[in-house]
Amino acid sequence: MTHGLKPSNRRRRTRAIAAAAAFAVAIPLTAGSPALADPNFPSTEGSTNISSIATYADLVAQLERLERTSRFGVDVTTLAEVGTEVSTSEQGRDLYVATVGDGPEAVWLQGRIHGNEPYGTESLLSVLKELGTNGSPDWSLLRETYTFHVIPMYNPDGSELNIRQTVLQDGSNQRIDLNRDWGDGKFVADESEAFYEYWTMVDPAFAIDIHHQGLKTEYGTGDDVTLSLGISLAPGGPTLPGIEGGAYDVLTRQMHVHVYDELAKYGNINMDRYQVGGSLEIDIKGGVVSAMMLGYDYKGLNPEGHSNPAIFFETSGNTSDGSLGQKARGKSIRQNVLALQEVLLGMATGEVQQEDPARWEEIPHAPVTGYQTDTGVTPLF
Prior knowledge:
Keywords: Glycoprotein, Hydrolase, Protease, Secreted, Signal, Virulence. By secondary structure, this protein is of the alpha/beta class. Helix content is 29%, strand content 16%.
C-alpha cells in the first residue's frame, strides 16, 4: 500500500484561500470574521435547539438527491446491497455509504459514530456535494486520485435518540459506545460488525473521523477552542511508533500539521491538540480508527493484516449536554469541511508528506503527563 502519490499527481494547488472559503456554498456563514475566535463559537448559553439537526430521514433524502443530481457519479448504497453479513443497525435501520471518484486509492470518511455529535453528518454531505458536482481542478484532482467511501451517519439509532451510543436489542437495552467496539471481546453491536466487514472490503489508504467534544479552552490562553486535532494512538506513545515501522506515527502528525497551518489562516477557527483529562494523550485501541491502524483481524476477515493511518477532528459542543449552540452551526460545519478539504488536497498533491512531523509539538496543548489507555492511565514517566 502506498500513501504517497504517483508523480503525475504531484502538482501544486492553484486555488486561493478566498476560493477555499467560497466553496462551502451550502453552509450558512455569519457576516464578517473576527480576528480571534468568536465567543459564540461555540455558544455557551447552555441550550441547544435540535430541530434543525439532520435526522435519519433527512440523511436518506439528501443522499438520494445527491445521487440524482451529481455530475460526477455519487453512488449511494446500503450495506444490505453491498452484501455484508450484518447490514443494519441494532434497531433495523439500513446503514448507508456513498462512493464517488475513480482514483486507485480508497479513502474512508465517517461521521456521527456518536449520535449526539451531529455535524459529521452535515459536513460529509457538504463534501459529497462538492465531490459530486464541483468541476474545479482541485475537486477533479481528488476524484482522479481517490475513490471516496463516505459514511455520514455511522450510528443512526443513537442519532435518532440523541445519545452517544447505540442500544442493544437483545433484551438488555445495554448502551454500547460504537467507538469502543472494535477489538478483542468486542463487536457487540450490529453496526460494528457491519462496518468492520465493509472496511475489510474497502482496504482504505487512510481514514478521517469527525466528532464533537465538550466546550474547551486553550491551555495557557483561556481562548475558546473551536476544533481539536486528534490521533487515537498517541504519536510517540506506547503503540503508534511500533506500527508499520513508525510510518503512521509520522504521517498522522504531518496530516494535522498541514490542517493546522491551513486553517490558522481563518480568523474564527482556534485549534489545539485533542487531549483528555486535561493533560493526557489518548492511546485507546478499541476505537474504530485505532483498530484500522492496528490492522485488526476479526473473524478472519482481514487475514492479510491490512491497516491504514487515521486522524479525527473534534468540533466543540454537542447536543445532549446543551452546548452545541445554534449560532455556531454554520461555522462548526464550515471548519470541518475546510479541514477535510485541506487534508485531502494536501495528501493528493503530496504537500502533507512534505510537512515536518516534529511541528506536531507546536500545535497548542497542555504539557503531557501520561496516556489514557483502554485499561487506565499510563504515566509518562
